[in-house]
Amino acid sequence: MKNEGGKENNRHSTPGKKEAETLIQTVEDYRREKEILLALSNELTKVREKNDLLHLFKKGIKGLFYISHTIITLIDYKDETYTPFLLDNEGSPIRTHDRYQEMVHSRFSLNEPFIQSVLQASAPISFLLKEVMDLPQSPPFLQVNYEKGVTEILMTKLMKEGKPIGFLHIYTDKPEGFSAEFRSIINGIVPQISGAVSNILKNEELLKEEKEKSFLLDFSSEIAAVRTKDDLARAVHGAFRKLNPSGGFVIRRINEDKHTLSIYVYDMPNVKNRKIIKELENTSFEMNDGLQNRILNSAIPVLLNTEREIRRGITSTYLQYWKQLGIENFVGIRLRNGETNLGILLLDIDEINVRLLKGICAQISIAMANIIANDQVSKTQGEQAFLLDFSKDITRVRTREELQHAIFTVLDKTMHTKLAMIRVLEDDGIHLSAFMYDKSLFTKVKDQFDNMAAHRITVDEPYTAQVLASEEGIMFSVEEEIKSGNDYAGLWRSTGLKNMYALPLRVGDKSIGTIWILANRLSPLLVKGICAQISIAIANIQANEKLLTYKKKLEIENDYLKEQIKTIYNFSEIIGNGEAMQRVYRLISLVADSNTSVLITGETGTGKELVARAIHNASGRKDKLMVKVNCAALPANLIESELFGHERGAFTGATDRRIGKFELANNSTLFLDEIGELPPDAQAKLLRVIQERELERIGGKQTIRLDVRLIAATNRNLDEEVKAGRFRADLYFRLNVFPIHLPPLRERQEDIEPLANFFIQKYTRSTGRKIKSISPKVIQKLRSYTWPGNVRELEHLIERSILLAEDGKIDDLFIPESTGTDKTNPALLLNRSLDEVERSYIIETLKRCGGKISGTGSAADILKIPGNTLHSKMKKLGISKSDYFS
Amino acid sequence: MKILVIGGSGLIGTKVVALLRQKGHQVIAASPSTGINTITGEGLAEATKDTDVVIDLANSPSFEDNAVMEFFQTAGRNLLGAEISAGVKHHVALSIVGVDIMQNIGYMRAKMAQEDIIRQSGVPYTIIRSTQFLEFIGGIANQATKGNEVHLSDVKFQPIASDDVAAFVAKYALAAPTNGIVEIAGPERFDMYDVATRYLKYINDPRTVVPNDQPAYYGGAVPRTALVPAGHAELGTISFGKWLSTQLQQA
């Protein structure tokens, strides 16, 4: 039953008193109605919010008339629906209905007969629920109310500027329904209710805007105080807590590579899985993954569905994690400062308040840009400060170890990388050898690296050539180099770093080497600065090392020269024109110019060293010092190090690097005296050096090429030594290329007098004595002596004679008495008297017989003389026990 | 289906919304006044949520060259961005016949930019290029008026009634995406000055139409056949005469 119209007009109009009473009643009713209307109107104009209106319905209307409950619905024209706006939460009987929540959130279509009839009615219109609820398309709330005992509904449309904006629903569960008076009053206050609803809407809008503004204002003042990333995290965290207490947020920043984004600050309160957090924290996500780039390209916030994005084929792992975490929807917004994208903000929320989010993001973006700029500035300052320190450190560096420490530290601190290699150009200007590197960088490929590092390369090696030719160095992409088949790239790849930065080290315009640094990205300015410092430091160290080497060499040469001054015959010419010596001179002049090894043999004191020196002085090497090694004078265990040198740490006690005599004699002559005394080990090594013309220091890896002319000398018969196995045959043949035999003095009688005169002159000079002449007797004596000590003995004899001479004349010679022990020396044998011969033979026999003088097996027995005779002979010759028990 | 009509309160929009609602679809008529703004992005994410088809009928509030370009680019990017994220299955947009050959006109460049954004978005689409609406004739006459004379050329003109346009839009919106362009036009082809003459006469307008042979559209020189379909086009059913009679009834 529809019942339209303001008032029912069903009152009886009987004449008389009753009529008068009725009239009075009617007037009274109108008066009451008017009062109610007035009161309600006054109340309605004060309504500002939902609660006011609710209160009015409850107290103002419900107090006067019976109704079960009222609600107000609003029309949404965008989809032509109406939806609950104001609900009577206390009085409504349908609150306990199963479908109550559904009703509260439903949007009911305007395009159905029930509500259309309300829209077309010009006044409140009532319906009996049981009549309308089952009509096709009728809204379900009619049924719901009916099921909770409601019988009738009074629908009134609310109008604003001639257009319906919503409906006032009034329900009753009383069978008598709504009275005419009630309908009339409702009709009367509809404009005020409409006005009140508009006011509430406007007010809510204002409040919402107000709230947003104050929120943004608060946020803005918090952001203004932000100085660091942590501050930002706190401020953003606080703000989003207010908006959505349970949801998290993530700010990702575009990394320096401009291709990826990494987490910057975040708060994920619902995520308890540490592993996932760690994974999300430590991964750089590809910018163009189909999602992040969409957010970055969108001027407005984007609402995203995790499942849909995964189905779209976006493979970035964070989506999988979010799915695991149960995040269904999220909002993505770009963070942008001016025209530059900084990153994205991801929010775990389901709806978008564009204005608010844009406000928040603008603030975050500015803060983020400031922090990044700030970080950049302090990073730059830090780097500069560090470079300054580095520069100071570098100036103090004197040794490789100090430099290594300084370089490793600076690379680690400023660039978080390690030194791959510094190669330094050698003196020849062609080869580059490894100078310094950080072994820890290549632990995975240690052997290969050691191999390649030990290999000396030349400036023509393609990569080195490129680097040396470049002005400011070259960057090699490890991936590309692998493709192009670079041998080194394999090593590089093992480090996991992407690029190899190679720069030339230069001092002024001069290249001194190359530096190789592996990193993903380096600041070119920084690298350049550091390289300049390193170049200077290396040049200093090289100069320092060179200086030390020279110093050492000079010291050794100096020592050696001092020694030489003491020992050598102080004349440069060999005295003697005899035929034997002429032969020697000829040999010297033949061999001197060549580089042939010479073996000088001859008895002791025959002047082997003088001949060696003469050969050296007549050769092209005469400008350099001839180096002499006396093989007999060195202990067996030192001889190798003496000859070949050693590296620091090669053996216990090797505290320093030592340059061997061979190296010292480079480009000169090495004179190996007493070669026959060389121990077998050293012989082998010597042979190798002679054959290969190169050597390695003991404990060293580097081979050193040599150009040494070898002269060996010995007073032994090397032939016999070889036969006896004491001297290596192969070494002997190497040495015996050009043998020169020096004759003993007794075979060059004619030279004795000139030699004697020479020595007299020499020693008169040095002693200050004046010797005018030598007596002929003395000359005769010199000639008749056999000179077992040869020229050296002659020299010493003359020296002694000068010292003993009186009156400036040498009258006598003090030729030593033979001790009689050295019978092997033929020279000694020849000069002995019979007594001497007899004496020494008896002593020798006694020694053989263990001192037994008589009896069987005694000396007397061997000598075939009676024991007594031997006794008396011993007494006569002065042979005591000490002679044969020595 | 849930269908979002951008510009749902405009000339074509209201008709399309009504047509689709008649067919029982859940239609959201979007416009800044209903809280859905493609320029600011307001309400866009909510509106596109669970939406199957988006029909873009919005027009720029300003026709200045830069403003109109800015409008179609921003709106297009925002709208299609939201559609991608929401998983919308069909984007339908209304464009103009000959838009590609009238690139000397700022508005046409902007519409072309809108089409390009749609084509590049990856969202399945149907672009409907329409000829001028019959409703435009008054406006065309006005902008060509000098004093009491209306100077119009013999450029070919095949106007279509907005009811026909709305019907085509609704039809294509409910069909599968063509991922291409379809052209729609009125049933008859005229010279522009001729249509204007007849229109003014019909509504008893005192202005006289002065024909010329310099084909132009809103001040921009165009090829004589720029405004009419070159190949196949779907033709509306409402003729000029029929349309005129309904106009008079309304007036």
From TrEMBL, chain A:
GO terms for molecular function: ATP binding; sequence-specific DNA binding. The keyword Heme does not apply. Residues 1-21 are annotated as: Disordered. It comes from the Bacteria. Residues 574-803 form the Sigma-54 factor interaction domain. It holds the Pfam family Sigma54_activat. GO terms for biological process: regulation of DNA-templated transcription. Transmembrane segments: none annotated. CDD domains: AAA (cd00009). Keywords: Activator, ATP-binding, DNA-binding, Nucleotide-binding, Transcription, Transcription regulation. This is Transcriptional regulator containing GAF, AAA-type ATPase, and DNA-binding Fis domains.
TrEMBL record, chain B:
Residues 7-171 form the NAD(P)-binding domain. GO terms for molecular function: protein-containing complex binding. InterPro entries: ComplexI_NDUFA9_subunit, NAD(P)-bd_dom, NAD(P)-bd_dom_sf. It holds the Pfam family NAD_binding_10. It comes from the Bacteria. This is Uncharacterized conserved protein YbjT, contains NAD(P)-binding and DUF2867 domains.
